[in-house]
Every structure is written in C-alpha cells, then in structure tokens.
Design brief:
single chain, mainly beta, Jelly Rolls, five-stranded antiparallel sheet, 10 strands, 3% helix, RmlC_Cupin_sf, RmlC-like_jellyroll, Cupin_2
Length: 141
C-alpha cells in the first residue's frame, strides 16, 4: 500500500447508527452521515439525504466546488435543472454531477431519498445566476 492511501481507515456504519440530522446543507432535507468523511480524513463524504418538508423553493441555482459528486436515488424521485435541462431522477438512477455544473433541485416526492458521494468532504456551495426558468414544483397533498 502506498502512502497516498495510508490516512484512510476502515469504516462500517450499521443501519441504526448515525441517525438522521436536520443540520445539513438544506433545512428541508434530513442527512445521515455514513462515516466516510471521518474514515478518509475529509477526502470524501458519503451521506444519505431524504425529504423532510414539502418543496416550496428548492435549492436555488448553485454549483459546488468539488472534484467529484454523484447522486444515487434510492427511493422516490427528484427533479433537477442542470443548466437549461429539466431532469427527472428516479429510484435506481445515478447522476454524475460534473465539477462546477450549475443546477437546481426544485421538486421531489415525499419519500425521496438519495445517496450522495462528494469529494472533498468540505466542498463549498456557491449561489449562481439563473441560466433558465425553473418549472413549478408539485405540491404534496
């Protein structure tokens, strides 16, 4: 093993550990840390994200200062704008959000849950001007 991998540690977070928290990036989502940021000393974060409140305004247009980001939808669905492209992401779908892509998560189902993996763990989010109009969200009944 080379020194480049030496700072990472084995990690195993069981289903009942690291409960859902509301103090993540968005207050309308809940986050469950999966221990990867600590195990990789901040090289990668891996967490589950799920809907906590009905969509009202979404995330707003933004980009992340990250080298790598994927979203794997595990339950429900979410609608994103990637630039001017409206994208429905459903359970089982995987999206690689290339570095710097301007996007907006604006609608999601009540059971929406996704796995997000980002590098580095302490990535920054930067608000951006709107490159396109965002369709209306679907109110929960």
């Amino acid at each position: 093993m080379t020194d480049e991998f030496a700072p990472t540690r084995f990690s195993h977070v069981k289903a009942g550990e690291n409960g859902w928290r509301s103090d993540g990036l968005r207050d309308f989502f809940l986050y469950r840390d999966l221990g990867v940021a600590e195990a990789t000393e901040g090289k990668v974060i891996c967490h589950l994200v799920k809907a906590n409140m009905a969509p009202e305004k979404g995330t707003g247009w933004h980009r992340h200062e990250a080298h790598f980001q994927i979203v794997i939808m595990t339950k429900g669905w979410a609608r994103f704008m990637y630039g001017d492209q409206d994208t429905l992401v459903s359970a089982g779908d995987c999206v690689h959000q290339r570095p710097g892509i301007v996007h907006y998560l604006y609608d999601y189902s009540p059971d929406m849950e996704y796995l997000e993996i980002v590098s580095p763990a302490d990535f920054k989010t930067v608000e951006m001007p709107a490159p396109a109009e965002v369709p209306p969200f679907t109110p929960w009944s």
